[in-house]
Design a protein that fits this description.
The complex is a heterodimer.
Chain A: H1 16-34, E1 38-39, E2 45-47, H2 48-54, E3 65-67, E4 73-76, H3 81-90, E5 99-108, E6 120-129, H4 133-151, E7 156-162, H5 163-171, H6 177-188, H7 192-202, H8 206-214, E8 219-220, H9 223-228, H10 235-253, E9 260-263, E10 276-282, E11 290-294, H11 298-301, E12 308-314, H12 315-318, E13 331-336, H13 341-351, E14 356-361, E15 369-373
Parallel strand pairs in A: 1-5, 7-9, 13-14
Antiparallel strand pairs in A: 2-4, 3-4, 5-6, 6-12, 7-10, 8-9, 10-11, 11-12, 13-15
Chain B: E1 3-8, H1 13-22, H2 28-31, E2 38-40, E3 46-51, H3 53-61, E4 67-71, H4 72-77, E5 83-87, E6 93-100, E7 112-116, H5 119-129, E8 133-137, H6 144-147, E9 153-158, H7 162-166, E10 169-178, E11 180-184, H8 186-191, H9 193-214
Parallel strand pairs in B: 1-3, 1-4, 7-8, 7-9
Antiparallel strand pairs in B: 2-3, 4-11, 5-11, 6-9, 6-10
Classes of the chains: A alpha+beta, B alpha/beta.
Chain lengths: ~375, ~220
Amino acid sequence: MKKFAIPEGTRDLILGECSVKKALQKEIEAVFDSYGYKEIITPSIEFYQTYQVGFDNVKDESMYKFFDHNGRILTLRMDMTVPIVRVATTRFKDQKPPFRFQYCANVYKVKESFAGKRNEVTDCGIELLGQSAEESDLEILVCACEVMEKLKQDAYTLELGNINFFHSACSDLHLDEEDIKTLADLIDRKSMSELSSFLESLALSEEVQTFFLQLPWLCGDVEVLKEALPYCFHPKLRAIIAGLKELYDQLKELGYEKHITFDLGKVPHLNYYSGLLFEGFVEGIGTSVLSGGRYDTLAEKFGSPMPAIGFSVKLDYVLPVLEKVATKQPSVRLCYPMKAKVKALQKAKELRKDHIVELLQDEAYEDVCVIKEDVR
Amino acid sequence: MSIAIALTKGRLEKETIKLLEKSGYGIESVKNKGRQLVFQDSQKDVQYFLVKANDCITYVQHGVADIGVVGKDTLLEGDKDYYEMLDLGIGKCKFIVAGLQGKSPFDKVGHVKIGTKYPNIAKKYFLAKGMDVELIKIDGSVELAPLLGLCDGIVDIMETGTTLKENGLVVFDTVCEISARVIVNKASFKLKRKEISQVLEDLKESLGENDVTTN
């Protein structure tokens, strides 16, 4: 007998799972709608080149690739930010920003086998293009908090960081790119013993070494911003902390402060980020469920520079902690013998105004018969 | 908030338990384990479970365990989606390149074959050396492979070197040093920061004591 399986890292969602996911998607989209974000649907496949321009250091083996009839390389889209920037810089070229776009689409990345990770996930998010940090960081963070509330009413954490905290620290040290990459990776993974031996090999001043060694630990509630100050050996670093503190104060005024934490050692792998970074966590899920940040230089690579920020929720990651949603509509079964088929369909049409009607042909019945089903 | 710690079975198990005990954890139930798989700490709000090294990473990555204690060898070979926050300095050994006396794979002209249980580590090492080698994955008694002519050398873990010596193999190079590490799930670290930092602090403290006694 033939066996039919699905490719690694993919899933079938059935029955209740679908309704939970759909319900969550609707709730999140309602938040996006209320902020004036317009939906964009882009193709599932993009040219490989588009992603090569978008991500500087794209990992080839993590893309699904194939060829078109002209031999050009196509990929399944890896994220929605790059396609949306592509749309904004081509189709909206002559329009005046800001642009507010939302999307909900499956994105694809080949992950290592058998680690239980997803190769296909649904990404539901927004991108706000054409507004600077001052203009839009706060708005985006508030929107992210509202979305997190939809996921887990009160039990969520939104963690802020700024990619420039790491980059400004590196800027005057004359390190080569390879070393910066290694340093970023070690800090991002809070890999303490490797970090300390790597720093020793770089021959940096003591002040700088202490800073980098401390960086992975500079995370926690707002107090950490104060704790970090003594380590800041560069005025730019203090300015970034002041910026984060200002955002915190504004979020506090808006009533979100108890959900806000910081991680100054956040150095993500996607190198299009250029400023504020944030990730949302809920209890019971081993990874971040929401993530986003500012990417002011990405649109420039596609030919029309504009600042931008965005975030998305990986819907599939949240599903395990969500409650089942009950179908609100009453459901009935309508049984009928063959000879009453047309009558049954007429009756069904009437009932469907406020019922879910399932038809069932059954010769045991003389005429059309409606059976209530309360328990479903 | 309660936290869950995944401990690696086998080589590291005893030393890890000793260290936890020293740090004031009530870990008797793990010491006197029967067929039980999950253990409750008698002093603190901590749960332990014993798993194989590779599974330790998996449990931590999925957040089923907040903290894991596992050898660097396993970490090097597997995924990296966790925080690696503390070097416990126990279970020390190293990765080495070994082969038959006088037949170093580094001197060989032509195609080189390397047998190993750890293809990722070996691949990375030889790539850094600028050598193009063929890797052959072997699951046990890797020392046997060069003896029988399956490959020109091996990349393997060496604790004392006795097994190598007894089989007439010599070490040509050290790939890296290995010891037990504490890994932490990323999301757990954000949500249970206080509890996790406490465990790290406790362990760090008794590590300090270790140093004093050995020096």
